[in-house]
Specification:
The complex is a heterodimer of chains A (76) and B (355). With 76 residues, chain A is α+β, with helices and mostly antiparallel strands. Chain A has helices at residues 7-10, 43-51, and strands spanning 17-21, 28-32, 37-40. Chain B is of the alpha+beta class.
Chain lengths: 76, 355
């Protein structure tokens, strides 16, 4: 993944959801603003999961990410 | 009743240069509208139907700032109020045509389609390059005989450049390079980025910039549904990076702007503009970019017109197949669907009284 900030970050956008196509694979890596992450090969399934926040996200927080207590609810 | 495009939204109706003292007829989101400028230069948009017998006001004439129906002489001011009818002194109080909120900004005439009370000019997205002195812009508009959603799909997935626009802007690396998609729900923006390192330079950029050899090519899409699409394009010789202070003068920047405005449910106004920060006064570069981009747009138009003929006859429930390249387009579709629901939940736009 590029280390430089994305266009969205440079513009100060509030990134609610981010999906990276993992380099060298067919996988998509999704990350919700709440810190939950998920990998999928199906963009439709991944968007459904992301925009379904918070359903199913509480089991998917990665280590080192902000906890849900640090974040406001999004996508509800 | 559910509509197929978002209401209570700003749309680009025309370039500012198109609106003059001559009457301009244009349909926006299914609504027939006549545009003109007052003698003070203010753009005006009125419903293009006389309240009397529905004659086209766009086929009528201006008398100063008054619009005189070419059929029986019903006369309207710039507010849409009928101020004169033939043969009688009393003008029916309900005799008026709808006046649309319009704003001239960034070389466009923006129009609000929906409930006038909700129109906020501050919410119009910006494309400042188009009217900036330190940028040079070429632009055009092509009619598209296809629903606007097909153009949104097209522009959010630039991997099609490799196949549809080879020899202009497409190279093999575009389709091969993974993308990153980001969504800002608060501000209603979809970002799709594709950064290509050490790739072939397509003729569109080689001839306009003069770069010889391979390039780093960044495509950063910023889509602000429903209407405004920005492609922040950066090309530079391989290895030339922005400085730590943000200085990027070693690169060439092109802002490709599209305004995607539904004409009807199955046709679209495809506004396109290409702004650059190099060769500002070089007419040959302007001519080349205008011709090349128009060619690219017409390639899209031909493909999407064809696709519309397929989709319009498709039975409901057809299941598409989506893959990784569609991630941005799917995000845009979701945002548009939410805007349609939100727009339909508000009051329908006021209709002209029939006096």
């Amino acid at each position: 993944m590029a280390s430089r900030p994305s266009r969205a970050q440079l513009q100060g956008a509030t990134v609610t959801y981010r999906v990276d196509w993992v380099l060298g694979t067919d996988l998509l890596h999704g990350r919700c603003q709440c810190g939950a992450e998920r990998e999928s090969e199906d963009p439709i399934e991944l968007w459904q999961w992301l925009t379904g926040h918070p359903v199913g996200h509480e089991q998917s927080w990665s280590s080192g990410q902000p906890t849900p207590h640090d974040l406001v609810a999004v996508g509800t | 009743m559910r509509t197929e495009f978002p209401r209570n939204q700003w749309y680009v109706a025309a370039y500012g240069t198109e609106v003059s003292r001559r009457l301009l007829a244009r349909k926006i989101c299914g609504e027939a509208i006549v545009f003109y400028r007052t003698s003070n230069g203010e753009p005006v948009a009125l419903a293009d139907r006389c309240v009397h017998r529905q004659y086209l006001l766009s086929a009528s004439a201006l008398d100063g700032d008054l619009l005189v129906c070419g059929y029986h002489g019903f006369t309207y001011d710039a507010e849409g109020t009928c101020v004169k009818v033939p043969g009688q002194h009393r003008v029916p109080r309900t005799a008026r045509v709808k006046k649309y909120p319009v704003v001239e900004q960034d070389s466009f005439i923006w129009i609000w389609i929906g409930d006038d009370a909700a129109a906020d000019p501050q919410s119009i997205p910006r494309a400042p390059w188009l009217a900036a002195k330190d940028w040079t812009t070429v632009c055009g508009m092509e009619p598209l005989a296809a629903r606007y959603g097909l153009l949104v799909d097209n522009l959010l997935d630039l991997s099609h450049e490799t196949y549809l626009h080879g020899g202009y802007i497409g190279t093999p690396e575009v389709a091969e390079t993974p993308i990153t998609t980001e969504v800002d729900e608060d501000h209603g923006i979809v970002f799709v980025s594709r950064h290509m390192e050490n790739v072939a330079c397509p003729p569109f950029y080689a001839k306009s910039t003069g770069i010889e050899g391979r390039i780093d090519r960044w495509q950063d899409i910023e889509y602000r549904p429903p209407c405004l699409y920005l492609l922040h394009s950066r090309v530079a010789p391989v290895g030339v990076q922005p400085g730590a202070d943000g200085d990027d003068s070693g690169a060439f920047h092109v802002e490709v702007v599209y305004a995607i405005t539904p004409e009807t449910e199955t046709s679209t106004h495809d506004f396109w503009a290409v702004a650059r920060d190099f060769a500002l006064d070089d007419e040959s570069v302007s001519g080349f970019l205008a011709e090349s981009n128009r060619t690219v747009v017409l390639q899209d138009v031909a493909a999407l017109n064809l696709l519309e003929t397929v989709i319009v006859n498709e039975p409901p429930g057809y299941q598409e197949l989506s893959i990784n390249i569609d991630t941005g387009g799917l995000a845009a579709r979701r945002m548009l669907a939410a805007q349609i629901v939100a727009g339909d939940s508000m009051h329908a736009p006021a209709t002209a009284a029939t006096g």
